[in-house]
């Protein structure tokens, strides 16, 4: 990706901050207000520049997404690559041979990184899966099946649970016996939005990929 100018970087950071708070990118009008622009057209121009330089991609007339999930993580970014320094036997002992075998990347663990984003966990309802307060869960914008763990947005509130699709309702099951199931029975005017499927999480101990 090409380097951003200082003003483009400031604009891009405003998009990241807005996403971390609202779980969506701002409209052109909202982005203009965030950056004290006189008109939404300035936001359009900045968005075009970010698309051209590879920081955003455009899926529709006003539908933009981040090209890299790493850019929207709060706090420090993880190292982008890990060097492969050689081979080690898992059978009989053999001489260690050190060599440069390339690098492992985040994409090696999660091949579809363009569909992955992260959210920071608040609470302990998923602790039996070793997902605890302060961790970053990795969510994929892919179809979620009955019994998958995912993030749900409903009435401007979010939660991470195992999702069971039942007749006319969703049952969200915690991984902690101290918490009760959450049942959502929306009416016709209400929308339940599945933000993403859980594919792993990250904390100070490292990156953990979902076994499911």
Binned, the helix content reads 10-25%
- Average pLDDT, to the nearest integer? 81
The CATH homologous superfamily of the largest domain is termed: Umud Fragment, subunit A
Count the E strands: 14
SSE arrangement, N to C: HHHEEEEEEHEEEEEEEE
Work out the radius of gyration. 20 Å
Q: Architecture of the largest domain, CATH level 2?
A: Ribbon
> How many domains is the backbone divided into?
2
Number of helices: 4
Low-confidence runs of at least 5 consecutive residues: 74-79
- Biggest sheet record: 8 strands, antiparallel
**Which structural class do you get from the secondary structure elements?**
alpha+beta
- Strand proportion, as a percent range, falls in 25-35%
Distance between the termini: 33 Å
Structure description:
By secondary structure, the protein is an alpha+beta fold. It has two domains: 6-67, Winged helix-like DNA-binding domain superfamily/Winged helix DNA-binding domain (Arc Repressor Mutant, subunit A), CATH 1.10.10.10; 113-209, Umud Fragment, subunit A (Ribbon). The chain is 19% helix and 31% strand. The protein has four helices and 14 strands. The chain has helices at 6-22, 28-34, 40-52, 106-109, and strands spanning 56-58, 64-66, 81-83, 86-87, 97-98, 103-105, 116-120, 136-140, 149-154, 157-166, 169-173, 182-184, 192-203, 206-209. α2 (28-34) packs across α3. The longest helix has 17 residues, at 6-22. Mean pLDDT is 81; it is low at 74-79.
């Amino acid at each position: 990706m090409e380097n951003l100018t200082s003003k483009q970087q400031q604009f891009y950071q405003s998009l990241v901050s807005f996403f971390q708070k609202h779980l969506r990118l701002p409209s052109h009008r909202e982005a203009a207000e965030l950056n004290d622009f006189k008109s939404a057209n300035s936001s359009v121009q900045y968005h075009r520049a970010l698309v051209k330089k590879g920081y955003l991609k455009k899926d529709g007339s006003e539908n933009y997404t981040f090209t890299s999930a790493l850019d929207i993580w709060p706090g420090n970014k993880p190292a982008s690559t890990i060097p492969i320094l050689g081979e080690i036997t898992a059978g009989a002992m053999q001489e260690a041979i050190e060599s440069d075998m390339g690098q492992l990347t985040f994409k090696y663990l999660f091949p579809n990184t363009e569909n992955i984003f992260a959210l920071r966990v608040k609470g302990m309802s998923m602790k039996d899966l070793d997902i605890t307060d302060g961790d970053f869960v990795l969510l994929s914008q892919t179809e979620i099946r009955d019994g998958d763990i995912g993030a749900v947005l409903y009435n401007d509130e979010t939660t991470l649970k195992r999702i069971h699709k039942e007749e006319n309702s969703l049952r969200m099951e915690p991984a902690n016996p101290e918490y009760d199931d959450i049942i959502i029975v929306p009416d016709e005017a209400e929308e339940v939005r599945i933000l993403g499927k859980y594919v792993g999480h990250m904390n100070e101990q490292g990156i953990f990929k979902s076994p499911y």
